Amino acid sequence: DGDPIDVIVLADPISNGSIVRCEVVGILKLLDRGETDDKLIALAVNSKLIYENDIEVFKTRYPELLNILELWFTNYKGRNKMQSLGYEDRQAAFDLIKSSIR
To answer: What are the beta bridge partners of residue 40?
Structure first.
């Protein structure tokens, strides 16, 4: 969408403006009024979940967490403004990062 990549960091509470080392685990694929507006999903390296570093693991072990993220991001701008296309894996996330750098 022309904006910097959005990153959802799963971690204990942190202050705004903090710099946090993270491990990328996947992408929440979204459409914002027809335009791509993907969100990277990352874990803070000090998170208790850091060893769950694959979106497929989250789909199996923590589906409620992914459901909450998807529900929030598809509704925070109002009803029917955002559409979820589901989640993609870590490799897709790295491909998105590389593409954004170019």
So the answer is: 7, 27
CA 75 to chain centre: 15
Rounded CA-CA distance 23/41 in Å is: 9
pTM of the full predicted structure? 0.87
Secondary structure percentages of the chain, helix, strand, coil, to 5: 30, 30, 40
For the cut 80, the answer to whether the pLDDT of residue 71 exceeds it is yes
Among 61, 59, 50, 3, residue whose Cα is nearest residue 28: 59
Please answer whether residues 56 and 12 qualify as being in contact, where contact means their C-beta atoms are separated by less than 8 angstroms: no
Residue 66, pLDDT > 90, answer yes
